[in-house]
Design goal:
The chain is about 35% helix and about 25% strand. By secondary structure, the protein is an alpha/beta fold. The strands form three sheets. Strands 4, 6, 7, 8, 14, 15, 16, 17 and 18 form a nine-stranded mixed β-sheet that branches. Strands 1, 2, 10, 11, 12, 13, 19 and 20 form an eight-stranded mixed β-sheet that branches.
Length: about 425
């Protein structure tokens, strides 16, 4: 065996990569992170800040077949495909639509519920271990609907929540909604509240804090782009801009760029980029009591620091097309109508790349041709939510332990 320089190299310094590095470090291993840009420079910078453990339903669900045609015809709708990217994304979209059939959907729900339950069991211990308790919020989430018809369309979701022990309660009038969250337009007549929903004060600040803890405990972060991976039976060489690094194990947690690294190992994983947009408003923009979700419109309103973030929706636009910030403006205009007291001036716009697999499940497990390369990517809208749990599972795999949950649903071989 070659004299390796370090136990594990983690590629990616977003919240998933950082959580993996900390979990491995906690087990006494030497860790180096390689990041092509800066800490939390992509999806971990501008997400909604939610630990959305109740979100066990895949994006591709049976009701999608009723909604998708309407959404796709609206260039500002919750799901859009820019014409310049339509042909390229079509094979992925076909897989995505296939995932909405009941057999695939039910398997995805079971897998996601198992992962969410485990991730929820780890989060508060993880937050406590890194000294971030002051960043955690317990404020709940309120889903809002403009009619009884819209609200009742979610019955399947409620049934699944009940089966998996997720607590929720219904609101049946604008008055009940106003009592829970003042300032919501009376056009919203029904709602569903999930009280156990938690969030982090600011996902970027939180991920930077994780990096600080990692460095204080002897971790190393190098800012280099990885150009190749060379796999050997007992170690892996990572070819970066300035030199080659050797390690006993490599963890790929590079978000929307991860499939490019997997391809270096001869594995084609159907990872796509669901581009999300948001606008962050300054302190005092609105007195938000909890995370608000507008399911029919595909966006959320969340509290970030002392400000408000309005964002969401899905644009299948890949990594290279320029941002279309009209989407941010459109969501902000809607938010202003839905929350008439919202001060929507002087916001900061952002677009980020969510790494998504067709069935909404991440890839967690070893590479097909390299058992000492571990995948930890494809969490889509749930990277922050599943970060601590993913880190713990990755550390178990690296240590040769039996994983805490069955990882078969998350194997890259499922494709």
């Amino acid at each position: 065996m070659k004299n390796v320089e370090i136990d594990v190299i983690v590629i990616g310094a977003g919240v998933v990569g950082m959580s993996c590095a900390l979990a491995l470090q906690k087990r006494g291993l030497s860790i180096k992170i390689l990041e092509r840009k800066t800490i939390a420079s992509e999806a971990s910078f501008g997400n909604a800040g939610a630990f959305a453990f109740s979100e066990i339903l895949p994006l591709a669900k049976p009701s999608l077949f009723l909604k998708a045609p309407k959404w796709l015809l609206d260039p500002m709708g919750p799901l859009s495909i820019p014409p310049a990217y339509a042909l390229k994304v079509m094979p992925w979209m076909l897989r995505f639509l296939r995932s909405a059939f009941s057999d695939k959907f039910n398997k995805s729900v079971v897998g996601q519920a198992s992962l969410m339950k485990f991730c929820e069991s780890t989060i508060e211990g993880h937050i406590d271990n890194v000294g971030a308790n002051n960043m955690l919020r317990h404020e709940g989430q309120l889903q809002l609907y403009e009619s009884e018809r819209q609200w009742l369309a979610e019955r399947e979701c409620w049934q699944i929540w009940e089966r998996h022990g997720i607590e929720f309660e219904h609101l049946h009038s604008a008055e009940e909604i106003a009592n829970l969250q003042p300032g919501v337009s009376s056009r919203f007549t029904h709602g569903t509240f999930t009280p156990a929903w938690r969030s982090i004060r600011d996902p970027f600040v939180y991920t930077k804090h994780l990096a600080k803890v990692f460095l204080e405990h002897g971790g190393i972060i190098g800012y280099e782009n990885v150009s190749d991976l060379e796999h050997y039976p007992d170690y892996v060489c990572v070819v970066a801009e300035h030199k080659k690094y050797s390690a006993k194990h490599v963890v790929i947690a590079a978000g929307a760029w991860s499939h490019k690294l997997a391809k270096m190992l001869g594995e084609n994983i159907p990872l796509e980029t669901q581009r999300g947009y948001n606008t962050t408003l300054s302190s005092g923009a609105f007195d938000l009591k909890m995370h608000l979700t507008f399911p029919e419109h595909g966006f959320v309103v969340s509290k970030i620091g002392d400000g408000i973030r309005v964002g969401g929706a899905v644009e299948m636009g890949g990594l290279k097309l320029p941002p279309n910030y009209k989407r941010s403006e459109f969501m902000l205009d809607k938010a202003k109508r839905f929350l008439p007291e919202l001060n929507s001036e002087n916001g900061t716009q952002w677009m980020g790349f969510r790494p998504c697999l067709p069935d909404s499940l991440p890839v967690i497990g070893s590479a097909k041709n390299a058992c000492n390369v571990i995948y930890a990517f494809g969490h889509g809208h749930l990277g922050l939510t599943q970060s601590a749990g993913t880190g713990e599972l990755v550390s178990e795999l690296v240590m040769g332990l039996k994983p805490s949950i069955d990882l078969t649903p998350f194997s890259a071989r499922r494709f």
